[in-house]
Amino acid sequence: MQFEYAPGFQLPVSRRAARFMSLCEGRVVLRKEAPEALWYPEPLGAPLACFWAGTLPVGELVVHQLAACPEGCELISPRQILMQAPESALPVLSAVLGLANWYQNERYCSRCGTPLEDAEGDRARLCPCCQYRAYPRVSPCVITLVWRDNEILLARAKRHTGPMHSLLAGFVESGETLEAAVVREVREEAGIEVTDITYQGSQAWPFPHQLMIGYRARWAGGDLVMDEHELVDLRWYAIDQLPVIPPPVSIAWRLIRDFCVEHGRELD
Questions:
Q1: Is 75 a domain residue?
Q2: Residue 194's closest CA among 217, 177, 211?
Q3: Which of 52, 83, 105 is the last residue of a domain?
Q4: Mean pLDDT score of the chain, rounded to an integer?
Q5: Does residue 1 belong to any structural domain of this protein?
Q6: CATH number for the domain including 216?
Q7: 148 and 70 share a domain?
Q8: What's residue 58's pLDDT?
Q9: CB contact set of 88 (below 8 Å; sequence gap of 6+)
Q10: Which domain holds residue 57?
């Protein structure tokens, strides 16, 4: 699905919105009779607020924030939507959810406390008092597949209640390069050193505003020392003996899949 991001807040006067997507209480509003649709040709209710997200092949996409779930509709969590939606819809969902979170939280000037307004012709919030501009927040986060021979390093985080294991990941700190963040995160969480760090791809992940930047790195030395504040399990897994891993919608799955395919194993 082709999706063009909107350059500013205001919907052009000469173009009408062709599709509406609704959010309520941080969840996506879907019609019970057509739950497979994410946007509709008419609004589902009177919005408390709205913003223009961008352009779909069928026309403009406007997002409505509703006060309550309309009759005949249901509220679905964004994570559930992402797990079920086709891959082509992911850029749209990431943009909508990220912008919704930004509009919800970026209401007052961080410099002087004045209520912010929508900037003219720019995707920004403008302070009418001191002219401070606030742009949508994007937080870079590196996620790394660490390997040695035909094994990959997988961890289970404390925040995950199920058996899922994933790759090591962490936010990039101020003044840090992406490659330096890879080295630091692996050292902090696993106690080992890595080399041959190569970029693999990226993915927007709107929980709430991450940009996941994928890397592959080869083990260079050291024994595993697990960060017990972050993790409950950390070990090397042969590619034919993998535990439960993240779903295909995630960049973690794609990094694991690509490595496995290169070493002669197809993921189910």
A1: yes
A2: 217
A3: 105
A4: 91
A5: no
A6: 3.90.79.10
A7: no
A8: 75
A9: 1
A10: 6-105
Residues 183 and 255 occupy one common structural domain: yes
Distance CA(242)–CA(153), nearest Å, equals 10
User: For residues 129 and 151, is the Cβ–Cβ distance under 8 A?
Assistant: no
Residues whose CB falls within 8 Å of the CB of residue 161, separated by 6 or more in sequence, listed in order: none
**Distance from C-alpha of 91 to C-alpha of 77, rounded to nearest angstrom:** 17
Q: CB of 226 within 8 A of CB of 64?
A: no
What is the pTM for the complete model shown? 0.89
Q: Which helix (H) or strand (E) holds 199?
A: strand 193-205
What does the pLDDT read at residue 57? 77
Q: How confident is the model at residue 13 (pLDDT cuts 50, 70, 90)?
A: very low
Distance, in Å, from the CA atom of 184 to the CA atom of 194, rounded to the nearest integer, reads 10
Q: Which residues, 6 or more positions from 232, have their beta carbon under 8 angstroms from its beta carbon? A: 156, 157, 158
Contact predicate 23/64, CB 8 Å:
yes
DSSP secondary structure letters along 47-82: -SEEEEEEEETTEEEEEEE-SSPPTTEEEE-HHHHH
Q: Which CATH number belongs to the domain containing residue 21 in this structure? A: 3.90.79
Q: In a 10 Å sphere around its CB, with 0-12 CB exposed, 13-18 middle and 19+ buried, how is residue 210 labelled?
A: buried
